[in-house]
Recover the amino acids of this structure.
């Protein structure tokens, strides 16, 4: 796929400017969330208005450069690695390259800011705080996180364009209706496989920032678990199904990340017969169901959210949680449940079922032997 098909490259200049402004505001908000010490912000904001204006202008320039870097890297890989031919390899290598480039870019910025400070006495707020080392880490985390989100946006857009192209080509070449539907279904499945919740990445990075300062050993374990989760999503994003055994290995790393953030507000009970382990599910099905339970319920130390995962004698997997309603009716698109149902429609004649009895919420997921469709 050519570079002209990228989300960012296809935007007109004024739309790209809107994107850069949006990323600037989001990154600043994210940075504030990563620095809970309000005292430092109170020290900073009495500065003259023109100083704050300079800071925002610098951020606009920096994010414009980050967007252009993302575009350049994507165009480079488009010439050498087509998404359609090497999805997993392309996604993995491009992610690593982009992270390394962003790290180098941040190191360059640090030297530039230091030079400005030594030469003219100007200290950007990015080096204003007493704990400069931790502040630099937070900047790198913020920039890297949003860069990864840009990759996900580009990848999803590429598959959407492939879907449209396949549709147009099928009509032009007079391909049979059955072949046309198959091509469209495969492209649609790829799009669904890439719907990873960006909030999970943001929350994980925020928790990691806290751990780096509090407990280095626990921080190391957290990084290892996050690495397993992200690597699993990269490697298996192109697969239609995966063994339940592999999905559960991924789930243990994912649960470690959740329990650190939620503490005793959430508990898990996993009891699955070994005979079911060779059966298959769409990748990240369990993660999506757990995310749905978290979004719809409170997680209190006095009344924890209890999630049970177990099988039955009908070759099905059940994910069950107690219902602890939120105080306010928070609107939810239930993207995770919709995603799972749509993926099963493309893979099997059997679909997930939902059962609610007032006290518990159950999602019953068919296990596949992949002779379904």
């Amino acid at each position: 796929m050519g570079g002209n098909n990228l989300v960012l490259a296809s935007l007109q200049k004024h739309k790209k400017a809107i994107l850069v402004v949006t990323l600037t505001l989001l990154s600043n908000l994210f940075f504030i969330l990563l620095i809970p010490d309000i005292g430092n912000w109170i020290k900073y904001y009495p500065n003259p208005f023109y100083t704050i204006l300079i800071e925002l202008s610098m951020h606009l320039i920096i994010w414009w450069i980050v967007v252009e870097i993302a575009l350049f890297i994507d165009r480079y890989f488009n010439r050498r690695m087509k998404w359609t031919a090497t999805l997993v390899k392309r996604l993995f290598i491009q992610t690593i390259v982009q992270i390394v480039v962003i790290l180098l870019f941040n190191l360059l910025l640090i030297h530039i800011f230091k030079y400005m400070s030594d030469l003219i006495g100007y200290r950007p707020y990015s080096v204003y705080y007493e704990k400069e080392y931790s502040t630099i880490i937070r900047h790198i985390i913020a920039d890297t996180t949003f860069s990864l989100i840009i990759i996900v946006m580009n990848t999803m857009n590429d598959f959407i364009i492939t879907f449209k192209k396949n549709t147009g080509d099928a009509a032009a070449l007079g391909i049979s209706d059955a072949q046309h539907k198959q091509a469209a279904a495969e492209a649609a499945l790829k799009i669904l496989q890439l719907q990873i919740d960006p909030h999970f990445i943001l929350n994980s990075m925020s928790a990691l920032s806290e751990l780096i300062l509090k407990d280095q050993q626990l921080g190391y374990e957290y990084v290892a678990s996050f690495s397993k989760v992200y690597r699993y999503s990269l490697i298996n994003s192109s697969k239609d199904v995966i063994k339940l055994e592999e999905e559960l290995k991924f789930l243990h790393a994912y649960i470690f990340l959740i329990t650190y953030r939620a503490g005793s507000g959430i508990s898990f009970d996993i009891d699955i017969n070994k005979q079911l382990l060779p059966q298959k599910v769409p990748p990240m099905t369990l993660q999506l169901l757990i995310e749905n339970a978290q979004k719809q319920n409170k997680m209190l130390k006095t009344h924890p959210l209890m999630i049970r995962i177990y099988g039955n004698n009908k070759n099905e997997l059940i994910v069950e949680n107690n219902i602890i309603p939120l105080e306010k009716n928070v609107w939810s698109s239930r993207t995770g449940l919709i995603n799972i149902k749509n993926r099963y429609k493309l893979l099997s004649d059997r679909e997930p079922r939902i059962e609610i009895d007032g006290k518990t919420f159950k999602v019953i997921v068919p296990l596949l032997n992949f002779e379904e469709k």
Notes: The first helix runs from residue 13 to 34.
